[in-house]
Amino acid sequence: MLCRLYLAAMHFNENAERPQRKTAKGKLMYRPMFLKAKRGGYTVKQVKTETTICYVLNLMQLVFKDIIHDPVPYVDAVQRIPVPEDLCAQLNRPSIEDAVAEHVSRFSRGGGLNLTYCPEAFKNALLIHSTMQEGITTWTLLPRKPQHQLTKVL
């Protein structure tokens, strides 16, 4: 764990002060960030240059030249370490058609809508009672649409 901390610190130290990327004409590059909290608004963020990993090359040079004078046994030991396959290779990925067919909107899971006509208490109103999956119950009143005189009988 301490080695990971040291590697993270070296990565930060090398890449913290990256310059801003420029276009071919020399203009500074920015990109818009559309945040949910801004509700349709946006902010502008600088586009930085790509991260570098030169510290890894320096570490390898230090290890192989100064610490390990004969790296052959080390390389053999490293090559014998079993490397697991990627996590994405271990999963069975469905085809896009199957994924679309199995998709269920979060609004259509459980609860549903109960439409009932409110009699005298809320005349001319529809009461929509919606119960969510987490147990949150919401009540909403919507004005009833005016009906033609002929359809009231039906």
UniProtKB/TrEMBL annotation:
It comes from the Eukaryota. This is Uncharacterized protein. It comes from Umbra pygmaea.
